[in-house]
Design goal:
The complex is a heterodimer of chains A (579) and B (373). With 579 residues, chain A is an alpha/beta fold. Chain A has 19 helices and 24 strands. In chain A, strand 7, helix 6 and strand 8 form a beta-alpha-beta unit. In chain A, helix 13 crosses helix 14 and helix 18 crosses helix 19. Chain A is globular. In chain B, helix 9 packs across helix 10. In chain B, strand 1, helix 3 and strand 2 form a beta-alpha-beta unit. Chain B folds into 2 domains: 229 residues, no CATH class; 102 residues, abc type-2 transporter like domain (abc type-2 transporter like fold, 3-Layer(aba) Sandwich). With 373 residues, chain B is of the alpha/beta class. The longest helix of chain B is centred in the middle third of the chain and has 30 residues. The radius of gyration of chain B is 28 Å and the shape is elongated. A 4-stranded mixed β-sheet of chain B has the order 2-1-3-4, with helices on both faces. The chains are: A alpha/beta (579), B alpha/beta (373). At the A-B interface, helix 2, strand 6 and helix 3 of A face helix 1 and helix 8 of B.
Amino acid sequence: MTAPAVEFEKLVKRFGAGRPAIADLSATIPYGQVTGLVGPDGAGKTTLMRLAAGLMLPSSGRIAVCGFDTRTAAAAIHRVVGYMPQRFGLYEDLTVAENLDLYADLRDVVGPGRRRGFDQLLDFSGLAPFTGRLAGRLSGGMKQKLGLACALVGTPKLLLLDEPSVGVDPISRRELWRMIYQLVAQGIAVIWSTAYLDEAERCAAVLLLSEGRLLYAGAPADLTRTMAKRSYRVCGIGSERRRLLTDALRLPEVTDGVIEGSAVRLVLVEGAIPPAPAALGYPRARLESTAPRFEDAVVARLGGARKDESRLGAKRAVPRTSGPVVEAQDLTKRFGAFTAVDHIDFAIRQGEIFGLLGANGAGKSTTFKMLCGLLKPSAGSARVAGHDLYRQAAAARSRLGYMAQKFSLYGDLSVAQNLGFFAGAYGLGSGQRRAAIERMVGVFDLKPYLETNAGLLPLGYRQRLALACAVMHEPAVLFLDEPTSGIDPLTRREFWAHINAMVGRGVTVLVTTHFMDEAEYCDRIALIDAGNVIAQGSPDELKALAATQDQALPTLEEAFIALIVRQRARQQGHDRAAA
Amino acid sequence: MAPRLRRIAGLIAKESRQIARDPSALLIAGLLPLILLFLFGAGVSLDISQVRLGLVVERPTAETASFAAALADSPYFTVVTVPDARAVTGDLVAGQLQAVVVLAADFGNRAARGATAPIEVIVDGSDPNTASLIEAYLSGAWNNWLQQEGLMSADRAAPPVSVVPRYWFNPEANSRDFLVPGSIAIVMTLIGTLLTSLVVAREWERGTMEALLATPAGRFDFLIGKLVPYFLLGLLSLALSVGVSVLVFGVPFRGSVWWLGAVSSVFLLAALGLGLLISTVTGNQFVASQVALIAGFLPAFLLSGFIFEIGSMPLPIRVLTYILPARYLMPSLQTLFLAGDVPRLVLPDIGAMAAIAAVLIGLTALRTKRRLE
């Protein structure tokens, strides 16, 4: 038996006073498999990665990487470790080939092996046709593949990937996993940190961290197994699933719950008897036992979902309107010769959650920006609450709240100052302003961070603040662009509790996401590819659309991939026929 | 190639490509020198010309006409002649005239008698520098006129000693020939300090530093990879500046290219060292550019002797100038352009700049992190 790839021994890492970022962690990472690093924000995942890469020194304890101590042999470690930081570490003003050249020079990859290695990496990442393109012009998925290719130059023995899949669509993610499995088969050790538990489930082993402590180390399936007979699906509840989820979470025997299309998935506390349908307030509901998932186990380990109801639901209801609240008609956007959005049509009713899904570069964000009035359509119209976003921009915008994909608050202003600024920007009077700020601070638990600069907040709080700033003027329509990208499962549940509460009082929500468990919360989804809506319907309808004889019950992610692949094959057929 | 050399070559290639694709780098290195040279070569001048002058002639005579003509013929003055001082005092207050010369009613009589015929001069003193220049020009014009007219009184007509000023190195006493070489020092400071102050900070801000730190590249590899491309860019910009100064503005260049190269190279190293140090310490592009302006550009402008004479600065400031590399470059450039190769003058400056460069680059190397903390 050879030595493990990484050995953490009684590792402690402190930054100043307060609780340590990593507390007394001992674990080993073997060669030839993917080890997942899982845990909520602030668990210490990135710190552990940096410690393993020799970019930080332990406060006490030791780390051996490929047999070298990080304290004394950092140079040796840098020769055998490939590291891909969260932001990929690419030079956006260099081309694909130039980025690879740089890393090859730095890692002393020379001679005929260099050309061969490049060919392999380019072939393997599918980047061969794009070697002359600037890295900054690549799509998110391609950037991530290039980041991985750069980390792989010189064939490292250990590959460290820090949240490689944030902001990447399911198709690109699936390709990334295929690449990683090939590497692992060659004997490389991979550490993959992620906030997404469906990904963690694909790892041979996981380290589950929370607040710097190791809660679990081992195969994900072993942890999932401890959850047997605790997961249930509540079906046959019509359109009441949001109400039912909120009510169910209040029951002492329920520890976690999420929406899955038209059903609600509940996880019970250990040893509890499943609640009667009547106790859920919906006597006609059916409870079906279902196989536990790794996510059920992790959320239970972390203490379950928050049980207090979102106070965003307590506000007065939005007045009912009959017609569509958000409407895209023949919406088209051309950039030069390229058509990013090609005659898209959809209408969103009041109190609906509508999801825009699609691969990176499919035209989601462009559609989204036209609907918020940030981009002028080349043709067609976008209307919010009956107001055209171009002819009556001010009237339309006053009705909507927008949470951007990128952090768009003032990083150098404190939380309180950001809230004050947005309250002023929405034109709230001084009395209203104070009340709105107070309410947001209460709803999102921002009190301890009021004087902290927004740029220094932990990711989860940053997103909370962004949502608070988007909803403080009580908009009737809410636009959320990848609102929970990179956020951990607990915070994600909390976010959806807020969104559900607002929808409960008549707010209409348009959301884009790359994560299918998030898409399950939507009433309807429009799947976009190459600027066209290729499928539209409820999550269950999309799954049914993608079902085949081999796969009668696809997951939403499988349906997403199948529908896009099918559409692209059909398109190629057309193109060939036309040629 | 040894691994280390290959790493350095890779980093230099990367940095050079980034410069080539960065429009702001090319603007600062290519266009800004031209703008500055144009400003100092054609726009700014420490000489004055076309002073707007009010001439009050209370009683016109042949003598006053002759003096008025002498003033009007001078390239330095634009003359408005009026009969009464009251007509022009308003214009002087409003700034439309810079000076007023009053020829009193008895001017002609007294001049004809060979007696002293005083003129009254009122100068707008709000800019004392200009005021004293105008005053000097006027008294020069007055003395010339007196000599021409042979009006010097008999006992002073043939002074035993006459003072004839002669300017060496800049015979026309043209301030452009002095400003243009100086502005090259400003250009080099901009490229050396302002441009490089951004580059390390940018690596931190864009997250590429973290990826670089995890490779075998060491801090010397990294620093040399940053220094070399910007050094070459600075020399290119220098060549451009010198070419434009000599060919377009006709500034004389009496020294040799080799001395110029030596002086500028040592200065560039100091300026680059300062830029990299600022960048490394701040780690933020915005703060770095602000610090670079205050620590690099402004002192090079104000405290190097470019515009203000160092000798006339208060002692503490004069002491401060000794740590500024531009203070040594400025006289060296002026020597090389106007006087020629004078190693005795240039060598001590090179030594001082080399010492400053060594300290700055050494500090940068010490402050360059090998880890994230």
